[in-house]
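--- STAGE predict ---
source: upstream dedup step, 1 unique chain passed
mode: sequence only
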Amino acid sequence: MLETTCGKGDSGAKFGHTVESPAVNYDSGENMVRNVLLFGLGMALLAGSAAAQNLVHNGSFATGDFTNWTTHTCGAGCGAQGWSVQTSIPADPGTPPPGATAAALTACVGAPCNDPVSGDTITQTLTTVAGQTYTLSFYYDGGSNSSTGTTELQVLWNGTAVSGGTIVNATTNTWKQYTFTVTATGASTVLEFSGRQDPAVLYLTGISVTAGGPIATPIPGTLLLMIAGLAGLGLYLLFGKQRLSQRS
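--- STAGE serialize ---
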């Protein structure tokens, strides 16, 4: 603001006029850039949170059925075949699934139960990113006499048995969490479990698949968010510098 004094009257009062110089409102521009930057960072955080979400739907069978899953019942060479959902879980020791109130089970008898094509299976197709690694986890209880009879749970990732994911004769009546690292090769991946429990029944619940680790190429949306964030930061610094120059 420029103040010009034209003169004084006899009373000592000040006569004059004030001239307002036009000022550039850097505050509004700075606030806008700051808001854009914060919005970009917030979206990036949301993207990261979404990436960590469970890709498996109804992984604890809370619906009381196989919603989101596809079941296949073993045919020739199998007995007591067929998966079902039990709306309670055995109160067995070990590492029980936290918060789970239901489990998938099968009592299929015979080696053909674990055939990935014609056996006793449940499958779900997941939306994945080629080259992305994922953490696959589930809770398994082999049931009664599972360590002495012929009991086998097998997990397959897009038709291929997961390394270490063929669990034979697990400890009797004991919950255990199993965790594996898998990599997607395409935009969709089939997660599959096959089960055989000759003496009794096996239980499966708490199934999850979450993104983790590097990917072969950046996700376009995430890359754009990163660029927007860096651009916003640059503009923020630029406006701040201009504001300091104006004040000086």
